[in-house]
Amino acid sequence: MFGLQMVLWPPGMGIDLVVQLVVRTALVYFAFLLALRLFGKREVGQFTIFDLALVLLAANALQPAMTGPDDSILGAFVIITTIFTVNWLVSIAMFRLPRISRILQSEPTTLARDGAWLSDAIAAQEIGMGSLEAALREHGVESVAETRLVTLEGDGEVSVVTKDGSYRRRHRYRRSRL
To answer: How far apart are CA 150 and CA 174, in angstroms?
Structure first.
């Protein structure tokens, strides 16, 4: 029983260490959120194997910054609770404070209008034509000539309005590999 108590609430785990874990975690959360925001919406919506590697390596690199010298289960609970609480508070702030929402969310970018690609907008978003053509096909559209509007939304998704006025919602399919 003594061993379990040591794991759950180790000696030296005072309120000052709990506060330190909360502050460290909140700072790391906001730093990571800022990095994601600065690197743009393409990173969120078009998650590639390189993006997965980036997130996994970043998580591994950031973990010691949050935990410091603590490796207790209580410390893990404090960190998890802090991450979810801060995330919840950010979502509430975005809902209630339009200015916060404008800071944290990207604006939609028009990539094509009236059947023609807007090359300056595409270059600014650093999206390859292969990815854009794939996005059109995912919407059931063969060519940009069939579109009235193609938009990169703030969440990284591509939306397509065809010339006949229909909006094509993107469907995500999960493939299983056997």
So the answer is: 24
The token pair that represents 116 in the structure block? 């023609």
Residue from 119, 128, 113 nearest 160 by CA: 113
| 10/131 Cα distance (integer angstroms) | 51
Residues of the chain with CATH 3.30.240.20: 109-168
Structural domain 109-168, CATH architecture: 2-Layer Sandwich (3.30)
Sequential pLDDT tens for the chain (178 residues)? 456 555 556 666 677 888 888 999 999 999 888 887 777 554 444 566 777 787 788 888 888 888 877 777 788 888 899 999 999 999 899 899 988 887 877 788 899 999 999 999 988 888 888 888 888 888 888 999 999 999 888 777 888 998 887 765 553 433 333 3
